[in-house]
C-alpha cells in the first residue's frame, strides 16, 4: 500500500513538471511567433529578391514607420506585384524573429483597367431567347 502511494506521488510530480515545461514552451513560442506588429493600409513596391516595401497610408498603431520591409515567398511576391503600382492592400504584419511577414493581406483597390478609361459608344441592348 505504501509503495503505490509513493509511485502515485512521483507520477503527480512528473506530470506537474511536464505541464510546467509545456506551458513554458507555449509562452516562448507565443513570444517568438504570436505578436501582431502592425495592421496597415498602403501600396506595395518591389524591394530585394524575397522582400517588398509597404508604403503605409494608415496604420494601427499610428505612430509606426511610413515604410516597412516585409519578407515573403517568391510566389506571393509575384502575385502581389502583378497587381500594379496603384493597387492598395490591407495587411496584417507579424514579427517572426528578426523578420516581418504578412499574416493576412487583402487587395482593397486594384489599378484601373485601361479598357475602362475614356468614352465608349454604347451598343444597343439585345434580347437573348433560349
Structure description:
There is one protein chain. The protein has 2 helices and 5 strands; from the N terminus they run H-E-E-E-H-E-E. The protein has 130 residues and is α+β, with helices and mostly antiparallel strands. The protein has 2 domains: 33 residues; 76 residues, OB fold (Dihydrolipoamide Acetyltransferase, E2P), CATH 2.40.50. Strand 4 and strand 5 form a beta hairpin. The longest helix is centred in the N-terminal third of the chain and has 32 residues.
Number of domains: 2
Tell me the major beta sheet: 5 strands, antiparallel
What fraction strand?
Answer: 35-45%
Distance between the termini: 88 Å
Radius of gyration: 27 Å
Low-confidence stretches: none
Strand sequence of the main sheet, in spatial order? 3-2-1-4-5
Question: What structural class should be given to the helix and strand makeup?
Answer: alpha+beta
The helix count comes to 2
Helix content: 25-40%
Number of strands: 5
* Structural shape: elongated
Amino acid at each position: 500500500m505504501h509503495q503505490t502511494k509513493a509511485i502515485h506521488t512521483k507520477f503527480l510530480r512528473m506530470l506537474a513538471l511536464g505541464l510546467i515545461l509545456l506551458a513554458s514552451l507555449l509562452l516562448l513560442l507565443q513570444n517568438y511567433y504570436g505578436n501582431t506588429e502592425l495592421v496597415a493600409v498602403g501600396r506595395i513596391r518591389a524591394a530585394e529578391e524575397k522582400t517588398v516595401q509597404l508604403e503605409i497610408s494608415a496604420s494601427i498603431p499610428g505612430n509606426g514607420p511610413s515604410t516597412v520591409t516585409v519578407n515573403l515567398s517568391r510566389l506571393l511576391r509575384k502575385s502581389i506585384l502583378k497587381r500594379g503600382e496603384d493597387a492598395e492592400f490591407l495587411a496584417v504584419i507579424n514579427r517572426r524573429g528578426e523578420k516581418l511577414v504578412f499574416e493576412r493581406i487583402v487587395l482593397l483597390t486594384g489599378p484601373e483597367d485601361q479598357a475602362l478609361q475614356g468614352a465608349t459608344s454604347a451598343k444597343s441592348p439585345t434580347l437573348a431567347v433560349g
